[in-house]
Structure formats: C-alpha cells, structure tokens
Amino acid sequence: MNSTAPPPLELPGAGIGWFERTLLGAGIRAADRFIGKDRLTRMFRQEAERAMVVARGLSEAQGRERVRIERFIGIEDSSRDWSVYMTLEHLVIVNTAIAAILPQLYSNRVVGTQVKIEEVKPVPEAGPEQIDDLAALVDRYTDIVDKLGNLRTGAGLPHPWFGTLSAAQWHALATTHNSTHRRQIERIKQALS
C-alpha cells in the first residue's frame, strides 16, 4: 500500500502573504473605525465562548487530537495541524499578551514590547484545562478593556504583519483573531466527525 505523507507545513512565524496581510490589516482598521469598543468587546467574548462550547462538546481524546485542516484566510500554514486544545491555548497566549499591551498603549507608556508570531505557538500537550484558562482570560481581558477609556488615544505598537496598531486596533485584532481560531476549532471538530 502506497502512503504519501502530506507536504510539510511552513515554519512558525512564516506568516501569510502580502495581499492577505493587507486585506486583514484593512479589516482590522475598518473594525476599529466603524465598530464601537463595547460592541467589539461583546464580539470578542462571543467568539471565545463559541470556541469553548465546541471544545466542551468533545471528549478529552478528541480535544487532544491534532488534525490537519485546509488553510483559510487569516491562519498561518504552521497552525493548520493543531488540536482543539492547542488552538485554545494559542488564544490564551495571544489574548493575554494583548491584555498586557492595551493599558501600556492607552497610557502612552510602552515598555520594550516586541511581538513575534513564532513565540505565540501552543504546545502539543495542551489539554482540557485550556477551556477554563480561556474563560478566565476572557473575563480578565474584557474587564481591562471596560476600565480603559477611548482606546484610540495613546501610543501605537507594531504588529509583524499589520504594521503599527493603536490600542483600539489591537482590540479589533483580538476580536478578529478569536473569530479566526473559532472557525479553526469548528473545522477541526468537523474533521473529527
């Protein structure tokens, strides 16, 4: 029986193409401009909750199973073979970092922060604890955002793909990011069925 291995994935941090980066960056900036902070916060929470509902509906073995999915807009090639729990851990890592960045940008006091895509990858051992970790992070994140005023003021911080973003744009990115990986989780679940 001839079995061919799937082609290797790109290295973490390889990114997404120029056109896709440009399109997503424009979408993030448009979301900041046309969607209010409170609505973005509700959307941030809803997307994370939808991802957690899917994860809770899986057995632990299913949640740990790595599944290679087709690439879709917004997802880096190296992220296409994660488990549901790995995807949740990635959301915890990224959203924790953005939650730390927002007050710094808001107060115009950015302390040596540099974002590196390859440093926000999950570990294969991620387990069901990621569901509770994400739930706690979502509460903490939304509490931070609620306490900050106008996120359009303050400093900007460069994102490796989307250029310099204000606090409001980082918040829009966090919401978009939750949505992207919620879709990833749904595709993993579908592949497991």
From TrEMBL:
SUPFAM superfamilies: DinB/YfiT-like putative metalloenzymes (SSF109854). It comes from the Bacteria. InterPro entries: DinB/YfiT-like, DUF1569. This is DinB family protein.
